[in-house]
Amino acid sequence: MRPRFCLVGALMMALFLSCLRPESLDPCVEVDPSITYQCMDRNLNEIPVNIPSSVKNLDLSFNTLKILGSHSFSNFPELQFLDLSRCEIETIEDEAYEGLHQLSTLILTGNPIQSLSQGSFFGLASLQNLVAVEISLESLDSLPIGHLKTLKKLNVAHNLIHSSKLPEYFSNLTNLEHLDLSNNYIETIYHQDFQALRENPQLNLSLELSLNPIDFIQPQAFQGIRLYELTLRSNFNSTNVMKTCIQNLDGLQVHRLILGEFKNERNVESFDHSVMEGLCNVIIDEFRLTFVENFSGDITDFNCLANVSAMSLVSVYLNNLEHIPKYFKWETLIVTRCNLVKFPSLDLPFIKHLSFTANKETPSFADVNLPNLTFLDLHKNDLSFKGCCTSSHFGTSMLKHLDFSFNGVIIISKNFMGLEQLEYLDFQHSTLKKTTEYSVFLSLENLRYLDISYTNTKIDFNGIFYGLTSLNILKMAGNSFKDNTLSNVFTNMTNLTFLDVSKCQLQHLSWGVFDTLHGLLLLNMSHNNLLLLDPFHYKQLHSLKTLDCSFNHIETSKGMLQHFPKSLAFLNLTNNSFACTCEHQNFLQWIKDQSPFLVNAEQMTCATPAEMKGSLVLDFRNATCHMHKTIITVSVISVLVVSTIAFLVYKFYFHLMLLAGCKKHSSAESIYDAFVIYSSHDEDWVRNELVKNLEEGVPPFQLCLHYRDFIPGVAIAANIIQEGFHKSRKVIVVVSRHFIQSRWCIFEYEIAQTWQFLSSHSGIIFIVLEKVEKSLLKQQVELYRLLSRNTYLEWEDNALGRHIFWRRLKKALLDGRAWNPEGTAEAEDNQEATTST
C-alpha cells in the first residue's frame, strides 16, 4: 500500500506544478515589460531562467551568486545594463559575460572578488562603464580589462590599491574618459606611474585621486601629461605636504584642476597662500578651490592663476574679493558659500559669467564694472537692492541673464534702461517693491523668461507687463491680484507659451483675460480659490496642451464644456470640492466621458453632499438621478393632489356635510317651513314681525330660528346644516346692511346656495329689510347677481306695503306645502275681519 500511496502523491504534486504558470515561480519584478527586471535581494543563488531574452536592464544586486560561471548570461543577448552589487561574488570565470555584446554598464560594487581570470571580461564588446568599487582590488594589474577598447569610465574607488601606476594595457583604452582612484591607499606618485598617458596624448582623461593619503609626488611626475580634469581633495595631512605636492605638478596640462577638501573630510587646518605658488608651472584652463577654511592671504595671491578662464571658489573663507587685478583674464567667476561680509565692487574687463551665490552675510548689492558681462547669478544671498536696475549698476549693456532670486528687498525704481539685451530675469522669492506703479519692464522687448513668483507683489495695474512682446515663459505664482480677480495683464504677450499663476488667491477671471495668448502651451492655475470651471475663458487658447486647475474649490462647471480648446491634452482637476449631486450630473458625466485626458481622474473625489464626501467622482451614477427625478415628480404630484383635496375638503367641508345630509334626509318630511338666516342686529324685526305674523298667522308656519331651535352643545355649523337646512323646506334670507357685513350670515347664505342646488328647487326667499347701498352690496358678488336676476321681497313699514308683503311671503312659503285653499281663505277672511273689528 505504501508504494501506491507514494505514486498517487507524486502524481498529485506533478499535476499541481503543471497548473502553475511559469511567471508565478519568477522571483523578479517586471518593471518595464520584457525590458527591465528588478531582482534585488531575492535570495537568489543562480541567474533566473524565467526572464525573457529581450531584457535590456537587469538588477541582481544583494543576492548570493558566489560564482559567475562561463556563459552565465548567454540567455540575455540584448542586455545593456547589469547590476551585480553585493552579490557575494568571489570568482568570475572565463567568458562569464560571453554573449553580452550590447552591455554598456556593468556594476560589481561590494563583491569580495578573490579570483579574476584573464578571460573574465571577454565578450563585452560594447562596455562603456565599469564600476568595480569596493571589490578588494589591490592593483590595477589584477583587473584584466586591456581588451575593453570601448570603455569610457572606470571606477575602482574604495579598494586596496597602493600604487597609482597605470598598467601598460591602458594604452589600449583609447576611449577612456574618466578614471576614479579615490579613497584608496595611494601615498606616492612616481614619474613612471602615468607613462601610459604620455604615450597616448590624445586621451582626454579625468583623473580622480581624492581621499588618498598622498604624502609625496615625485618632481615632474606629471611632466608631459595632458588631462581633462584632475581632482585632489582631502589628500594631504598638512600645508607643507600639500605645498610640496602641488609644486611637483609642474609640467601638467589640465583643463580643470580641483583642489581643496570635502566638507566632512578636513585634513589641513589652515591653508597657506604660498600653496598657490606651485601652480605657476601648471597650464590650467579652469580652477576650482573647495572647502578651505582660514585662508591666510588675499585674492591677489592667485597670481599664478591669472590666465585661467574660469575660477570657482566654493566654501573658501576669504577676507574679500575687492582687489582682483584687472589683468586677470578670468571670464567666469563662481563664488559660492564664501561668507563674504560685503558684495565685492568688481572691476574686471574680461568677466562674462559671474555667479555669486549663497553668501548669506552679504547685506546689500554694490555696483560693479564688468563691461563684457552677459551672465549674472546672485541668488540666495539675502541681498537688498535699492534702485534696481540699469546698465550703470553692472557696468555693461550686454547682460542677457540676471538672477536675483531668493534675496531680500529689491526696489525697482528704474526701468532697466541700458539692459535691453536681457533674455532671462528671475526675482522669485525676493521681495519686490514699486513693480506695479508703472510699466517697469517696458524696455525689455527681448526678454524670454521672467519669474516674479512669491515676490509679495499685488497686481493692481494692468500695464505691468507692457513691453514684454517676446516673452515665452512667465512665472508669477504666490502673488495676488486686486479683488482676487485675474485681470487683463497679458494683452501684448502674444508669444507666451508657459504661464504660472498658481497660489495667487484667485476667485474670478476677467472676461477675455487669455484671448490674445494663442500660442500658450501650458497654463497653471492650481492652488487658487476658483469655484467654477468655465471653459469659455480658455476658448481662444488654440495651442493649449496642459491646463492645471488642481487644488481649487471647483464644485461644477459653467457654460458649454465644448469650449475647451481641441488641442488640450492634459487637464488636472484633482483636489477640488466637487458637488456630486443630480443638479450637476451633466458635468459629472462629462468627467467620466473625458477621463482619458483628465490627470488622475480616478483620484477625483466628491466634497458634497455629506453622504458622498470622499467617494470617487467616477462612481457617481446618473441612473440614481433619473430614479430620484421620478420619485420627486411622483412625490410632488402626490403632495399637490393631497394638498388640493385637503384644501377642497377644508373649503367645502360644510358643503359636503350638506350633501351627505341631503342624501340622508331626501325622503324624510321637513319639520320646518323655513329656516331663517339673518343678522343678530335684525333680531327684533324677526321676533316682532316675521315670527309673529308667520307662526301666529293663518295658515301658521313653523320657522327654524337659531336662538330657539338649535340644539345646545352642537357646533353652530352643524346646527345650521342639520337643524336648519336638512329639516326645512325653504330658506328665508333677511338681507340688510348688517347681514352683508356679517361673516356668519354670508357663510349661511353660501351654504343655502349649495342646499338649493342639491335640493333641485327654488327654496330661497330673499327679504330686503332696508335699502342697501350698491357699493356695499357689490362686495358680495354672487348675492348682488341673485338680487339683480331674481324676484325678492322688500319690507315697507306702512299698511298697504305690509299687507302686500305678507301675502306674497305666505304664498311663497305655501309653494310645495300640502294645504286646503278654501279653509285657508276662510281663515284669512276671519283674521282680517277680526283685525278690522
From TrEMBL:
Membrane spanning stretches: 631-654
GO MF terms, alphabetically ordered: lipopolysaccharide binding; lipopolysaccharide immune receptor activity; transmembrane signaling receptor activity
Assigned keywords, A-Z: Cell membrane, Cell projection, Disulfide bond, Endosome, Glycoprotein, Immunity, Inflammatory response, Innate immunity, Leucine-rich repeat, Membrane, NAD, Receptor, Repeat, Signal, Transmembrane, Transmembrane helix, Ubl conjugation
Superkingdom per UniProt: Eukaryota
InterPro entries hit by this protein: Cys-rich_flank_reg_C, Leu-rich_rpt, Leu-rich_rpt_typical-subtyp, LRR_dom_sf, TIR_dom, Toll-like_receptor, Toll_tir_struct_dom_sf
One annotated GO biological process: inflammatory response
GO cellular component terms attached to this protein's record: early endosome; lipopolysaccharide receptor complex; plasma membrane; ruffle
One Pfam short name: TIR
Residue ranges of domain TIR in the record: 670-813
Transmembrane helix is among the record's keywords: yes
SMART domains to which the protein is assigned, alphabetical: LRR_TYP, LRRCT, TIR
Membrane topology: Single-pass type I membrane protein
Chief place of localization: membrane
SUPFAM superfamilies: L domain-like, RNI-like, Toll/Interleukin receptor TIR domain
N-terminal signal peptide: 1-22
Subcellular location: Cell membrane; Cell projection, Ruffle; Early endosome
Keyword Membrane set for record: yes
Family stated for the protein in its record: Belongs to the Toll-like receptor family.
Name this polypeptide is given: Toll-like receptor 4
Native organism: Myodes glareolus
